[in-house]
Amino acid sequence: MPTWLILILIGVALVILGVATEIGQFLIWIGVIVLVASLIIGLVGRSRT
Questions:
Q1: Which residue ranges run through the membrane (predicted)?
Q2: What is the model's pTM?
């Protein structure tokens, strides 16, 4: 599985956990950061090939 896909799945899981828990704001921000990083990695990887 590509790295960017794994990061997207982790980001989505963190956002879902963030919505469901008390410390949600922190987890939502981490999830958003991971999602953005994975999108950037995916775009950079596609531009190389």
A1: 28-45
A2: 0.57
Question: What's the token pair of residue 37?
Answer: 């990083």
Q: What is the CA radius of gyration of the chain?
A: 12
Alpha helices in 1-49 (DSSP H): 3-20, 24-48
Tokens for 6? 């794994």
* Count of positions (residues) in the chain: 49
The DSSP symbol for 1 reads -
DSSP 18: H
Banded pLDDT at 13 (limits 50, 70, 90): confident
HSE-CB of 28 using CA atoms within 13 angstroms: 8
Judged on CB neighbours under 10 Å (0-12, 13-18, 19+), 31 is buried
